[in-house]
Design a protein that fits this description.
mainly beta; 7-stranded antiparallel beta sheet; 2 helices; 3% helix; disordered N terminus
Length: 583
């Protein structure tokens, strides 16, 4: 940024970040004396001490929420030190979440402060030559959603950084004007980090998508050139006689809340609903060319009952939905009251009370490949993306159970219980975050971990089920500095035990998270991953194999447990059962 002329009026630049939260503007002052930054996976809040025009200190309000694993103070050497520049990152903390400021770095005429937060997402920068920051503005809610600055010209501006030099540094130069006497040059670039972000584009583009960039897979440098998990070569997937793109139907219901749209994929694997007086939330696990992709959770957190609908994809296809919408309370807003899912094999539901106005997506032949609608405290309305045309379903592989449902019957006939049986309190770790449960599969193929200096920040597991590889959603924030990929030689190598440590974060005894994990297989040991300090735990109680994971997560992996298929003694594999191990 450069200033010309004698006009001393400050210039407003920015903000950079998302559009959530509420706007704020501190205005402009003589200078900045101190900044207080609370941060973790993102910038939770920012508070500034300004020097007023009459010599008194003026503190701003807290811009953001009350969270944050760390709080740092930036104290400038007033009046000899002035704030000249800021840069940082903005993006979503979770898949499909709103954009917030993830990281901030401040630069004065003496030194650089930061970075504070987590450097991931889109990079922004304010290269300043000839101006000083005298105020902040932006948007905030639970986090600092966006941030901009007020710039005042200096009496003796330094030399202007040429655009050519900035381009050579990898910046895109955006020029503009802020009025008489000012030229604005903002440099923006994507930071090349040690982690690669591989966006998962949708297979069809006829329907609009709001999640094409949010379902990104983070790989380490050693894995960045490897292929993303592929579907088995021998597996066929449903085909459709219509070569056009999906058609958008609906939404049906009320007009409250905000819009959501998962876009279009190649199929539907699972649907998870929560409900009370109406459908409070929906989360869909999609299929994209043989890979399981977990969509975002849409709706509120007030559900008192959870329903998990698992389809036998690709041998069972969701063809249409029906349901009811109406008021959730007397004279209250209109929301979806009930949902029923119809497939090529059966009907699932109804889930919820069939009261109000009936609706149906059954217009013609085809399969549902995505959901959209409106969300708030409830699912206010719901619609679908439909790939129209006559369906051709693949045949189940030879010498295999006909379907997941038939496989369940086969397991029961051999003494295997597919529903896990809780056997005590747990799981191991803390009680923070939200519970999650991947369920039961045939085995574990590979595990992705991210961790920071404080503990394990996320886990993601690739399972095998009836010859298909199913990838779980990421449990945790995934904001660690280090990523590990633990790949087993499945099916010849079996995961049979996990152990680790859990402890407090930043000496806050009430917040316990998983600090370290170690995995034992039929061929060896993997780990430990993380610092082995705190309270030890292990899943070793009987011989067997791990066939699923469950636990709790938030910014960290708060707790973890396993589903085990175990047997009573060596070689006694005919009488087995599956149970859910707790601490």
């Amino acid at each position: 940024m450069s200033f010309r002329g004698n006009d001393k009026k400050p210039v407003m630049v920015g903000p950079w970040g998302g559009g959530g939260g509420s706007p704020f503007d501190d205005g402009f002052y003589t200078t900045i004396k101190q900044l207080v930054v609370s941060h973790g996976a993102a910038i939770d809040s920012l508070r500034i001490e300004y020097q007023g025009k009459k010599g008194a200190s003026v503190w701003s309000e807290r811009h953001g929420g009350t969270g944050g694993a760390r709080t740092d103070k930036v104290t400038l050497d007033y009046p000899d030190e002035i704030l000249l520049s800021i840069n940082g990152f903005y993006g979503s903390i979770t898949t499909g979440g709103p954009f917030v400021v993830r990281s901030l770095t401040f630069e004065s005429n003496k030194r650089k402060y930061g970075p504070f937060g987590f450097q991931q997402g889109s990079y922004f920068s304010l290269p300043v030559t000839g101006g000083m920051i005298v105020g902040f503005h932006g948007r905030c809610g639970w986090y600092l959603d966006s941030l901009g600055v007020h710039i005042k010209p200096l009496n003796d501006p330094s030399s202007i950084v040429p655009s050519v030099a900035m381009n050579k540094m990898g910046y895109n130069i955006v020029r503009g004007s802020a009025g008489k006497g000012y030229d604005i040059v903002v440099a923006v670039r994507e930071k090349e980090n040690t982690k690669k972000f591989r966006p998962r584009g949708l297979s069809r583009q006829a329907s609009s998508s709001s999640s094409s960039s949010s379902d990104s897979e983070i790989l380490s440098d050693s894995e960045s050139k490897a292929k993303v998990l592929q579907k088995p070569a021998e597996t066929n997937y449903p085909t459709n006689s219509n070569d056009g793109g999906p058609v958008k139907y609906g939404p049906w219901g009320g007009s409250g809340g905000s819009v959501f749209d998962d876009g279009a994929y190649t199929g539907i694997r699972q649907i998870i609903l929560t409900r009370n007086a109406g459908i409070t939330s929906i989360k869909v696990v999609y299929d994209k060319n043989g890979i399981a992709l977990g969509g975002s959770k849409h709706g509120g957190g007030g559900g008192i009952k959870t329903d998990k609908i698992v389809f036998d994809y690709p041998y069972e296809i969701l063809t249409h939905i029906t349901g009811y919408y109406g008021t959730t309370l007397f004279m209250g807003p209109i929301a979806v009251k009930s949902l029923t899912f119809h497939t090529t094999k059966k009907k699932y539901g109804p889930y919820g009370e069939e009261q109000g106005t009936f609706f149906s997506s059954s217009k013609c032949e085809g399969m549902i490949v995505g959901f959209h609608g409106r969300k708030g405290w409830y699912i206010d309305s719901i619609g679908v993306h439909v790939l129209e045309g006559k369906l051709t379903l693949p045949q189940p592989p030879p010498n295999s159970p006909v379907s997941w449902a038939d496989a369940t019957l086969a397991e029961i006939s051999h003494g295997v219980m597919t529903e896990p049986v809780p056997s005590g309190p747990g799981p191991w770790g803390g009680s923070g975050g939200r519970p999650w449960d991947d369920g039961v599969y045939n085995g574990v193929r590979q595990i992705f971990l991210t961790r920071s200096s404080e503990g394990i920040t996320s886990i993601q597991i690739e399972y095998e089920k009836i010859g298909q590889f199913v990838k779980s959603t990421m449990h945790g924030s995934g904001t660690g500095e280090t990523t590990h990929r633990i790949r087993f030689e499945y099916p010849n190598e079996i995961l049979n035990c996990i152990c680790g440590y859990y402890g407090s974060v930043d000496r806050v005894e009430t917040q316990k998270v998983i600090k370290s994990l170690t995995f034992y297989t039929s061929r060896g040991k993997y780990g430990p991953f993380g610092e082995e300090r705190g309270t030890f735990f292990t899943s070793t109680t009987t011989q067997g194999k791990v066939v699923g994971f469950h636990g709790r997560c938030s910014l960290y992996l708060d707790a973890i447990g396993v589903h085990m298929q175990h047997w009573l003694g060596e070689g006694k594999t005919t009488k087995t059962r599956i149970s859910k191990f707790f601490g």
